[in-house]
Each structure stands twice: as C-alpha cells, then as structure tokens.
Amino acid sequence: MRKNPFWPVWMKAITLALFTIFSLTAAHAQNTITTESTENALTIMDDKIEEARIAIFNEHPDALSGAEEAEAYARTLPPSELQIEKLVTSIRLQALVLVNLERYGEASARLDHAQTYPLAPASIERGGLHHAHGSLARARGELGEALIHYRAAYDVYVAAGDEERQAITLSVIGSVYLDAEQYERAAEHLTRALAFSSLTPQSIMTRHANLAIALRHMEQYENAIAEYQTAITGARAIGARNAEQLILGNLAHLEIARKNYDAAQNWIDEAMAIARVDGIDANVENALNARAELERQTGRLEDAQTTIEQLFANEDVATKAVEDIHVHETAYKIYQAQGDFEKALIHLMTFKRLHDQAKALALDANNS
Questions:
Q1: Residues 6+ apart with CB under 8 A from 358
Q2: Which among 350, 306, 346 is positioned nearest to 325, based on CA atoms?
Q3: C-alpha to C-alpha distance for 135 and 150, rounded to whole angstroms
C-alpha cells in the first residue's frame, strides 16, 4: 500500500528525551506493588504505558519489550475494571509495535487476546482497540476494513466526548482516503479534524500538509499552496526539517503542474539545501523526482535522465517501492523522450502494476 506521506516522517523529527525508557524491570515492578500504595502503583503504571507509547512514537528498538513490561506490571495491580483497562492498553501497544515491524500475524493474535478481557461498557480503550485493528488492516492494504474500525473508534470517542481522539481519528480516516486516492473524502475528514482546538503543533502541521495533498489532486492549487505554507511554518516552528523537506518537494510538484517553473525550481533548491546543509535526506527523493520532471518539461532531457537515475541507483527498477509510483511515471516519460524504449517500457509496466494496486485499494475503501 502507499503509506500516508506524513507517517512516520514528521514523528521522527520530534525529539522526546525527557523519559528514561523502561527503567523498571518487570521483576522490580512485582516488588514495588507490595510496598507502594495503590495510588502510587497506578501512577507507576501510567508512567510505564507512557514510556511504551513514546518508544513506539520514536521507533525505539526496545518498544516491544517496554510494552510487554507494562503488561507485566499491570498484572500486579489489584483486580478492578481499571486493571483490565491497563492490561488491554499495554497489549494493544504491543500489537502496534508488531504492526510497525510488519509482523501482522502476531499483531492480530495480540489484539484478539486483548479482546478477551471484559472492558467496561464506557471504556475509552474500546476505541483504542478499534484504532489498532484499523492500523493493522491498513498496513495489510485492507483499506475498507481499516475504515470500518476507524469509524467505530470515532464513535467511541464521540460518545466519550474525547475531542482530541476524535480529531486524531478523523485525520487518520482522511489519510486512508489519501491512500485510496479519494481526495474529496480525504479533504472532508482532514478539514473536520482541523476544526478541533485540542491539536498539538505536530498534528496541525501534519493535517495541513495532508489536506494540501488532497487539494492539489483536486486542482484547487491556490488553496493547496496556502495549506502547504501553513504546514511549512509549523514544521519550522518545531524544527521538523525532514517534514519541511517533504513539503517543499510537494510544493515543487504543484508548481510544475501549474507550469510555474521558476517557483518550482526555488522550492526544489530549498529542499536540496536541507539535505546539503543539515545532512537530512529522508525525503530528498521527492525533491529529486520534482527536479527530474522539471528538467524534462523544460527540455533538458540529459539532465533529467541523470537526475532520475540517481533514484534507481543499485536498485531493481521493477521492484522499487510502491511509494515511488510517480517516480516510475517520470522515468517512463524521460526515457520515452530520449528514445530508450526498453527502459521506458520497464518503468511503464511497473507504473501500471502499482497504479492497478492503487485502484484496488480505492475500490476496497469505496466499498466499506
């Protein structure tokens, strides 16, 4: 599947160094509960869950063991509805780590296990489980199934009056529709998400950037530019340079679509400067693809070929990632214009395969 272009890109840019990850072992947790009051034990439990969340957020290599440690500690708490909720939360976090690791069968098994616990009818964790099921389905390319779970999670959050989680879930639903290339629906949900006041600077940046993508594909270029510029301001405010690099590349693509080549070149230069000055190249491919397309459209075919070939160095052209579908489109057009029909055909066939996959995802989402 084609992943949300801002997940996990912008999350990697945020440094959260305020926590010592996993400082307590499960064995120590067992001892602690016998000497601390129940109130203190719950505080420790909440800290362990928060540490596990942050580890997942930062893709820490010990994220899974941290979530398992949180579960072990939860089992030492006095039996109650609250204990059950903490157990389910820690198991759900384990499943999310496994989704990130593409261990989908194990993730599914942990979610099934979490659902065996009798959560209270009004527990917010019911929404969390639906959200995790949605993340698993989305990772598997089952967008229709993902939307069913995300909508169920949203309903739980509405019933609970939790505006922050409502906003997050609307944003995720919008990004799923971006995956499915259903841009009107994506724009609708992302706009609704931005209406909430309980948004963090990071989430505001992400939603404006994704809304801009939807508007660009809807050919609402002026509105898209405004959203991109808001997202850039947000990225710079929090120091998210790799996210800024991605947005600048997207702006270049938009200006190329408008035949505004001077503006496109300026955005490309800014994106490449981040790679050159800051050493950040997480999203330089996006800018390079824009540069190759700009060179093609302005008749600099040899330069375009040199640029596009940087993106396929030491890679099997036919199996380059789905996220690079538009790179294959650009490469096909360049090689066709150069008269290299053998290479053009390779990229055309790969583009067609990836495009057919995207259409299947769209159909799945539309049928949900």
A1: 2, 180, 181, 325
A2: 350
A3: 8
Q: Print burial letters for 152-184: b (CB count within 10 Å at least 16), e (below 16).
A: bbbebbeeeebeebbbbbbbbbbbbbbbbbbbe
The whole-angstrom separation of Cα 88 and Cα 111 is 9
CA-nearest of 5, 8, 99, 1 to 322 is 1
Length reported for the chain:
368
pLDDT value of residue 241: 87
Residue whose entry in the numeric block shows the structure tokens 């214009």 = 337
Task: Give CA–CA dist 162/213, Å, rounded.
Answer: 27
Separation CA 348–CA 265 (nearest Å): 26
Answer whether the bond into residue 201 is a cis peptide, omega within 30°: no
Residue 337 exposed, middle or buried by CB count within 10 Å (0-12, 13-18, 19+): middle
Q: Is residue 36 classed as helix, strand or coil in its secondary structure?
A: coil
Query: And the tokens for 235?
Result: 């990225």
Which tokens go with 253? 């693509």
Q: Are 322 and 359 in contact (CB under 8 A)?
A: no
- Model confidence over 137-150: pLDDT tens digits? 999 989 999 999 99
- Of 279 and 100, the structure prediction assigns the larger pLDDT to 100
Could you tell me the pLDDT band of residue 22, with boundaries at 50, 70 and 90? very low
Torsion of CA 276, 60, 136, 120, to 10 degrees: -140
Cα separation, 14 vs 184, in Å, equals: 30
Is residue 110 within 8 A of residue 95, CB to CB? The reply is yes
Please give the structure tokens belonging to residue 324: 């690079």
* Residue 140 phi, psi (nearest 5): -85, -5
Q: Does the pLDDT of residue 25 top 60, yes or no?
A: no
Token code pair at residue 276: 């050159």
Please give the C-alpha separations between residue 46 and each of 26, 29, 40, 87, in angstroms, as whole numbers: 14, 13, 10, 11
